[in-house]
Specification:
Elements lengths: L8 H17 L1 H11 L2 H18 L1 H10 L3 E4 L2 H13 L5 E5 L16 E3 L3 H9 L7 E2 L16 H7 L7 E6 L7 H10 L1 H4 L4 E6 L4 H11 L6 E4 L5 H7 L2 E4 L3 H9 L4 E4 L5 H11 L3 E4 L2 H12 L2 H14 L4 H15 L1
Parallel strand pairs: 1-2, 2-3, 3-4, 5-6, 5-8, 6-7, 8-9, 9-10
Helix pairs in contact: 1-2, 8-14
């Protein structure tokens, strides 16, 4: 269930729109807010008020929780984590609580002291939680859960290429959008398409626009006029298949997308990195050799060209991605964090 479905329609619209507005138009303000609210003295000052606010806006959710009292609650977002923690602290919620952090490093907003278990992706993230007062025996380092399709065998790649109308002789680059990349995303695609001059018959693009319908229409209309083979997709449910067909991915630094790419062993080129959680994700991936950060569309094209011309670097990044991946995170979370709480 989506906790935001148990809030008002107006709040749901405000919640998403505020974040997108800040990262598009005032990233400096988002960066400052993220850092300030993660600072201990400020967090301790505002947390009592934040908890009351969360309970108020999530009144339908609290009513549902009071009535159904699940045995175990597993949450992958900090808003319901705080609401459930408040319920446990007040005594009206008896459920065990498992908080799965879906970024590589936890902001203080993820911390619900009442939770029986926290699931984190990195040793560095575990150290952060420990320093902030979480008992080590409550911290599980299983990773971000992804669908099985992102690490299952792909079968005959030639069949996959034929189904997607891809040229097996070209390097396949998957490019994905995000809600905060208006303008940047299309410029990235056009910069990559221009590589056909420098790298003739070397690259082909799979472009996933997601919910950006206008970008999808514009790119689809222009695809035929571009020299490089480009396939444009809107919102899809077969991302795992596209990743399986790709040799590298150009994407945002969101925790889930990055985890899915790592699960498939894809080298990652990270663009338009947002301050805060995305920047921390991106630097972690780059530090461990699984990705490269390119801040502008032209830099993205230069980075992809570098990888296309250096198969050994691409292979090293692929190996690093596999080393970082936690493809069985979902099963591990269930067996090591959830089932012990069910049996108690």
């Amino acid at each position: 269930m989506d906790a935001l479905d148990y809030t008002s329609r107006r709040f749901r619209a405000f919640y998403g729109a505020t974040y997108i507005f800040l990262v598009r138009h005032a990233p400096w303000l988002w960066r400052a807010s993220y850092a300030l609210l993660d600072w201990g003295p400020v967090y301790r000052l505002i947390q009592p008020f934040r908890r009351r606010w969360n309970l108020w806006i999530c009144r339908p959710l609290t009513a549902w929780l009071r009535e159904f009292q699940p045995d175990v609650i597993v949450t992958t977002h900090f808003l319901p984590a705080d609401v459930c923690g408040a319920g446990k602290a007040a005594g009206w919620l008896t459920s065990a609580l498992v908080v799965v952090v879906t970024d590589l490093f936890p902001h203080r907003f993820w911390i619900a002291p009442e939770a029986e278990a926290f699931v984190i992706s990195t040793a560095e993230g575990r150290e952060v939680l420990t320093r902030r007062g979480m008992a080590p025996d409550r911290i599980h380092m299983q990773g971000i859960p992804i669908a099985r399709a992102f690490n299952s065998a792909i079968g005959d790649r030639a069949v996959l290429y034929e189904r997607l109308a891809l040229d097996p002789g070209r390097l396949t680059v998957l490019v994905t959008s995000g809600g905060t990349t208006v303008g940047q995303f299309e410029r990235v695609v056009h910069s990559l398409a221009e590589l056909e001059v420098a790298l003739p018959q070397r690259l082909q693009l799979l472009v996933v626009c997601g919910e950006d319908g206008r970008a999808c229409r514009r790119l689809a209309e222009r695809a035929g006029a571009l020299a490089m083979p480009i396939r444009v997709f809107a919102f899809i449910d077969h991302m795992a298949e596209l990743m399986a067909a790709s040799d590298l991915i150009v994407t945002k630094a969101g925790g889930l997308t990055v985890s899915e790419a790592l699960g498939r062993g894809l080298p990652i080129v990270l663009y338009h990195v947002i301050p805060g959680q995305e920047r921390m994700n991106a630097h972690y991936i780059a530090l461990h050799g699984a990705g490269l950060i390119a801040r502008r569309p032209r830099a993205v094209a230069q980075t992809v060209r570098r990888l296309a011309e250096d198969p050994e670097l691409l292979a090293r990044m692929r190996a690093a991605a596999r080393a970082l991946s936690r493809p069985d995170a979902a099963a591990q979370i269930v067996s090591q964090a959830v089932q012990p709480l069910v049996r108690r």
